[in-house]
Design a protein that fits this description.
By secondary structure, the protein is of the alpha+beta class. It contains 5 helices and 22 strands. Helix content is 15%, strand content 32%.
């Protein structure tokens, strides 16, 4: 297959994955319909100011920085109500260029809640503290943190300096800023627990990156999702071929594979990820089927490496770590509701 493995040039520094309280983002725009869907181009090369949109999750909060009018500033917030999706055609105009049509990211938002507004001038007395948070985050996470605000005119006298929004469409809004910026407390998530933010986006992450126990991975890009699913099913087939399985057949739902091993019918649930995971997502139907059918295997293939072509499109996948739990029944104490986030049994699985 023609293509190349995922390289660091197509990864994001997803530092917030290790800090579940970091569920905040900021949109920087002159649009009139604030609170409408987040929309950004999906380009051939990684463009973090657009592609960060692929990492928001339902329940996250988006603060809106408006550049419309004479005074830029924070004017409101919205809650994310959908997972990111890819649209085939999205029309947009670059900062310096003509209108274009490309694939795009789209995320639905809930009700718009107005703030202040809190202008850039209002934030000036807090400039040093805001910049200090940026510096601490960069030191702690060793890389870009996609900070929302920047000091302008650093070489000037203090009374000549300004605070501006970062030149990007979409940025991260660190939770630490709630302790600095006045008037935004309503945008904070009350009573948030770690389990409320269990999903981690796989898009633009380094293959094999470990995510926390209790968190599940999900790819927003359908091409990436298909490649991971296809690779995990291929690895499952190779496994059953190696142990003399017969009649291998991909079913799809409520289980993935039917096969006969040593004369005994088995069903198999197959899960895949480009990240290193200790938790997988199960639907209610998958759990019920595993409870009822006599013999069900769970196969997990993680650390799968996507293959991209010269246009940065995912065209396949290779590799992956195989783990197998035979005669598997989901343990009720390892399930979390909605679909189910299932914590894998200890011991790593049989390879």
């Amino acid at each position: 297959m023609r293509g190349k493995s995922t390289m660091s040039s197509v990864t994001l520094n997803t530092w917030w994955v290790s800090e579940p309280e970091q569920r905040y983002w900021m949109e920087i725009t002159d649009r009139a319909d604030l609170g409408g869907p987040l929309e950004s181009p999906k380009l051939e090369r990684l463009t973090w100011g657009y592609d960060l949109v692929s990492h928001v999750q339902p329940g996250d909060r988006v603060l809106h920085w408006s550049t419309r009018g004479s005074a830029s500033g924070l004017v409101g917030w919205s809650e994310v109500t959908s997972y990111p999706s890819v649209v085939a055609s999205y029309s947009w105009t670059p900062r310096h260029g003509e209108r274009r049509s490309t694939a795009g990211w789209r995320v639905e938002l809930g009700e718009f809640h107005p703030l202040g507004p809190i202008t850039a001038v209002d934030l000036l007395p807090h400039l040093d503290k805001i910049v200090a948070i940026d510096q601490r985050l960069k030191k702690r996470h060793r890389g870009a943190v996609y900070f929302p605000l920047t000091r302008y005119g650093a070489g000037r006298a203090a009374d000549k300096q300004e605070i501006r929004a970062t030149q990007a469409y979409f940025v991260k809004f660190p939770a630490e800023l709630f302790g600095i910026i006045p008037g935004i407390v309503d945008a904070r998530i009350d009573g948030m627990s770690v389990t409320e933010s269990v999903t981690v986006a796989e898009d633009f992450q380094r293959p094999g990156k470990k995510i926390g126990r209790g968190r599940v991975a999900r790819a927003a890009d359908p091409a990436l999702r298909r490649a991971i699913e296809r690779r995990s099913l291929d690895v499952a087939r190779e496994y059953y071929d190696s142990i003399g399985g017969l009649g291998y057949r991909e079913v799809g739902a409520p289980y993935d594979v039917a096969v006969v091993v040593d004369g005994t019918p088995r069903h198999c649930e197959v899960k895949g990820s480009s990240l290193t995971v200790d938790t997988v997502e199960l639907t209610i139907n998958e759990v019920e089927h595993a409870d009822l059918f006599p013999i069900v295997d769970l196969i997990v293939v993680d650390g799968i490496e996507p293959i991209r072509n010269d246009s940065n499109e995912v065209v396949g996948a290779v590799g992956g770590r195989l783990r197998v739990w035979t005669s598997w029944v989901p343990a009720s104490n390892a399930l979390q509701a909605t679909k189910f986030a299932y914590t894998l049994p200890a011991g790593g699985g049989r390879v």
